């Protein structure tokens, strides 16, 4: 039996395993003594390790931070590094189905994590099963490492690196095909304002998602209602204006997207605040936000309209809150691979504060870059081409993956070119055919790495 047929033979097993993992809400929650990222991520890790143990792999759980299953022999280690945690998902965010009950319709699976990244983890599990079924010499150890908080900081991977073995070659099924040879750097920041006439404001669920819904409460007669409505209508923005005694509540609906591709979304925070300013609302914080951020996703208001030969800088605000009269929110910047975090901080330093607010830089993570000619990149790209017949150059992306935190590792799939899987959005989906194809590509990729 050829490899393609062997992979196809596991179609129903892929659906079964993925359905089990999707049914576990593995958003990070409050830490407990034996669950550093909350009950959900721990439960997902235990379920996945149980699957690998039943496959006959040696399994290790590193204190519920992260775990792995291993097969093969040898001094060298091939690592596949995926994550079992997910970004928040709520039915009211626009889901047509319960995000934590996987649904199959016309050969397509819907549910939080079917693409990012439980689908990639399951495809990797099955690829290891296929290699076992092939009964070929495995001269290196192959280890599937599964983390529990990639979406909220990757402390799980740091725990692994601090306590276990670095790979000689590795990939994470959490990017794009054919292969990722560069990941932009990331600057995380937040803004704070105590000078505002806003009564209340709240929107967004996570820093790495374009905000899809935001509301604000302000005094009546503090802006032109007609100008506000005209602005929203002219920009095709869904909105609602509701009177509340002496105040008015305005709600804007946007479109979620991954923070690394903010142009694919519609930021509800930015349109709401920009619309209010256009309608004549006078407020120090609104002026600050519109001048520093506004509708731009290129960082222009912070002096960060930067690019290199590979990519442009992007900026996203994922959430905003108000507590005790203080407004705060996040800023997520993805910067080009030829630049450093120090350069980015220096470039924006004189734009970080005025009377309406302050931006505080929390951290920077420098880019990741491998030459397209490196053996690792060439091997994985060749595997993709052999299976699909599609010849493409490796990519530079804005998304940050586990590859930044572990040696000799790059992102390899699981997204196929020019397909929007609604990652970090409502109605995340993945065709079963794509998952089967991923398995075949990962089998080819592992075999290529065994030859190095």
How does this model look, in words?
- With 452 residues, this protein is α+β, with helices and mostly antiparallel strands.
- The protein has 11 helices and 24 strands.
- The protein has helices at 3-8, 11-22, 39-54, 118-134, 155-163, 225-234, 268-278, 284-292, 341-348, 375-388, 432-451; strands spanning 58-62, 66-72, 77-83, 103-105, 108-110, 141-147, 169-172, 175-176, 180-183, 185-193, 200-203, 213-219, 238-244, 247-253, 314-316, 320-323, 326-335, 353-354, 357-365, 368-369, 395-397, 409-411, 414-415, 429-431.
- α7 (268-278) crosses α8.
- It is elongated and about 75 Å long.
- The model has no long low-confidence stretch (mean pLDDT 96).
Short description:
With 452 residues, the chain is α+β, with helices and mostly antiparallel strands. It has helices at 3-8, 11-22, 39-54, 118-134, 155-163, 225-234, 268-278, 284-292, 341-348, 375-388, 432-451, and strands at 58-62, 66-72, 77-83, 103-105, 108-110, 141-147, 169-172, 175-176, 180-183, 185-193, 200-203, 213-219, 238-244, 247-253, 314-316, 320-323, 326-335, 353-354, 357-365, 368-369, 395-397, 409-411, 414-415, 429-431. The strands form six sheets. Strands 1-2-6-3-7-22 form a six-stranded mixed beta sheet, sandwiched between helices.
């Amino acid at each position: 039996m050829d490899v393609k047929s062997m992979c196809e033979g596991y179609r129903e097993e892929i659906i079964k395993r993925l359905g089990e993992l999707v049914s576990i809400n593995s958003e990070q929650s409050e830490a407990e003594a034996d669950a550093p990222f909350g009950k959900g991520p721990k439960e997902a890790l235990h379920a996945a390790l149980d699957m690998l143990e039943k496959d006959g792999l040696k399994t290790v759980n590193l204190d519920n931070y992260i775990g792995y299953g291993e097969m093969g022999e040898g001094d060298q280690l091939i690592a596949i590094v995926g994550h079992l945690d997910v970004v928040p998902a709520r039915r009211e965010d626009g889901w047509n189905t319960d995000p934590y009950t996987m649904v199959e319709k016309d050969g397509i699976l819907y549910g939080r994590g079917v693409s990012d990244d439980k689908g990639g983890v399951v495809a990797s599990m099955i690829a290891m099963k296929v290699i076992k079924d092939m009964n070929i010499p495995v001269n290196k150890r192959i280890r599937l490492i599964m983390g529990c908080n990639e979406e909220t900081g990757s402390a799980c991977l740091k725990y692994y690196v601090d306590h276990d073995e670095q790979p000689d070659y590795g990939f994470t099924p959490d990017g794009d095909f054919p292969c990722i040879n560069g990941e932009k750097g990331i600057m995380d920041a937040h803004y704070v304002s105590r000078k505002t006439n806003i009564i209340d404001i709240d929107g967004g669920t996570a820093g790495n998602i374009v905000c899809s819904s935001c509301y604000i409460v302000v005094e009546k007669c503090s802006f032109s209602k007609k100008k506000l409505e005209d602005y929203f209508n002219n920009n095709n923005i869904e909105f609602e204006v509701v009177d509340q005694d002496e105040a008015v509540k305005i709600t804007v609906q946007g479109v979620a997207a991954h923070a690394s591709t903010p142009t694919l979304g519609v930021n509800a925070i930015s349109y709401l605040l920009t619309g209010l300013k256009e309608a004549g609302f006078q407020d120090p914080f609104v002026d600050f936000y519109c001048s520093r951020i506004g509708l731009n996703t290129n960082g222009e208001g912070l002096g960060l309209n930067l690019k290199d030969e590979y990519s442009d800088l992007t900026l996203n605000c994922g959430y905003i809150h108000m507590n005790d009269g203080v407004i705060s929110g996040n800023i997520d910047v993805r910067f080009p691979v030829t630049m450093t975090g120090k350069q980015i901080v220096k470039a924006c330093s004189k734009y970080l504060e005025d009377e309406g607010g302050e931006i505080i830089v929390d951290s920077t993570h420098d880019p990741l870059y491998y030459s397209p000619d490196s053996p690792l990149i060439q091997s994985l790209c060749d595997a993709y081409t052999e299976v699909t017949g599609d010849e493409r150059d490796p990519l530079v992306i804005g998304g940050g993956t586990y590859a930044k935190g572990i040696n000799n590792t790059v992102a390899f799939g699981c997204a196929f070119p020019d397909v929007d899987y609604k990652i970090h959005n409502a109605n995340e989906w993945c065709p079963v055919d794509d998952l089967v194809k991923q398995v075949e590509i990962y089998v080819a990729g592992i075999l290529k790495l065994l030859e190095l």
